[in-house]
Amino acid sequence: MPTTPSIEHPPADPARRWRLAWWLWFWVLFALSSIPGHRLIGPRPFDWFDKVEHFGFFFLGGLLLGGSIVSAGRWPARWWLLPLAAAVVGAFDETHQLFTPGRSGLDWGDWVADVAGGTVAAVAVQVFYRWRRAPR
To answer: pTM for this one?
Structure first.
């Protein structure tokens, strides 16, 4: 006999789980941006290594947001939200760093790396989306 969802145990919502993961990502970013400059880990492998870190972290954020959009059935119509979210959150992050001791903030190179990470995530989600929908 089929069971009906109850209020105590609603059906699983994958899009909600992806959104929660994205919000966790956002708060981890906020926490990392709140670390004073003098407490950051020592020397980097090369001068622009922080751009690689920005790109990778925002790529991950884009994948999480993309997972939410795909799970909600709104992909590919809303692909543009990934680079837009990266641009807005990246600008917030750079502004927040202005108020963190020992951090510079408003680094255009960091912001460009953030947007690039979100944009490449949109491309990766699109490739995965098309692959999953391809007839087998």
So the answer is: 0.88
Q: How far apart are CA 68 and CA 54, in angstroms?
A: 21
Instruction: Give the residue among 73, 110, 85, 77 at the shortest CA–CA distance from 95.
Output: 110
Which H, E and C letters describe 64-127, residue by residue? HHHHHHHHCCCCCCCCCHHHHHHHHHHHHHHHHHHCCCCCCCCCHHHHHHHHHHHHHHHHHHHH
CA distance 87 to 112: 8
CA-CA distance, 34 to 39, in Å (whole number)?
A: 10
Residues 103-133: tens digit of each pLDDT: 988 999 999 999 999 999 999 999 999 998 8
Q: How far apart, in whole angstroms, are the C-alpha atoms of residue 58 and residue 38?
A: 24
Closest to 128 (Cα-Cα) out of 65, 77, 86, 66: 66
- Once rounded to an integer, what is the mean pLDDT over residues 43-56? 92
